[in-house]
Specification:
Order of helices and strands: HHHHHHHH
Structural class: mainly alpha
Length: 267
């Protein structure tokens, strides 16, 4: 139901807001609601919850968290403070633009030489595009699209509802985080400290991302096993149908596989 799920997600978001970290709280809440929608959440419940939460979020953004208001101002006009708060996104754009179509070559980035802050974590994609160009950046995006496609297929063929939602949640967690990172690096949204899964520097983030991929693969393995069972059941049913058409009755407790020998000739 909606109420138990919301009662589980809401305290998590509240604890993250207290840190304070409004961006991560919004990320967790968004991920939770996407999984609920995939599980059959009624849009009426979603609209009611959104109507109740949005005023609180907007109030926190403009009256409680001054840094959020500052980030929005920088997002609207980063050139207003090019050597201060707008420096990071301007240097990110420089890295993205100087990469061209094929890039400068691996290891040949100049923005990573203390020009672009957090170039090895949150803004690693800008350095990647500078070194590999539009081609390399496009390949990374295609890989994440392939990941969400594979996760969707695993979720669709999961053995049960829990496995389907689990695979969907783990996949969306990785892809949504990647989408937010790319949006920050390109300046499509205000700056937020969020790493690029499986690529950014950091052992903890890499281990967590690999654990999520492992969970999805575990669900996929169970789905394959279930598929094999269904195929065997279909084969047994087909053989039983063929034998029954020949006029042979199967004793209780026996399947078509227990009957051997050539079929009797018709009289």
């Amino acid at each position: 139901g909606f109420v138990p799920a919301a009662a589980f997600v809401a305290p998590l978001c509240a604890l993250i807001i207290v840190q304070p970290d409004l961006g991560t709280s919004l990320f967790v809440g968004m991920l939770g609601f996407i999984v609920l929608i995939a599980g059959g959440l009624r849009f009426k419940h979603l609209a009611i919850c959104a109507g109740a939460v949005m005023p609180i979020v907007l109030s926190l953004m403009f009256f409680k968290f001054d840094h959020v208001k500052t980030r929005i101002e920088v997002f609207l006009d980063p050139a207003a403070d090019p050597l201060g708060k707008g420096h990071q996104i301007l240097q990110s754009w420089t890295a993205l633009g100087s990469g061209g179509f094929t890039g400068k070559g691996l290891g040949e980035s100049t923005q990573k030489l203390f020009y672009l802050p957090e170039e090895h974590t949150d803004f690693i994609y800008a350095i990647l595009v500078e070194e590999t160009g539009f081609v390399g950046g496009g390949v990374v995006i295609l890989l994440f699209l392939a990941l969400i496609y594979a996760g969707h297929r695993v979720s669709k063929h999961a053995p049960d509802r829990f496995g389907a939602l689990l695979a969907m949640g783990m996949t969306l967690s990785l892809v949504l985080q990647a989408a937010m990172n790319l949006a920050v690096v390109t300046g499509a949204v205000p700056t937020k400290g969020i790493s690029l899964p499986l690529i950014s520097y950091g052992g903890t983030g890499l281990v967590v991302a690999l654990m999520q991929v492992g969970v999805v693969l575990s669900v996929a393995r169970q789905a394959v096993s279930r598929s094999d069972v269904l195929k065997l059941a279909a084969i047994d049913a087909r053989e039983a149908t063929q034998i029954s058409r020949r006029g042979i009755s199967i004793a209780p407790g026996l399947s078509a596989n227990h009957i051997s020998g050539p079929a009797p000739r018709p009289l």
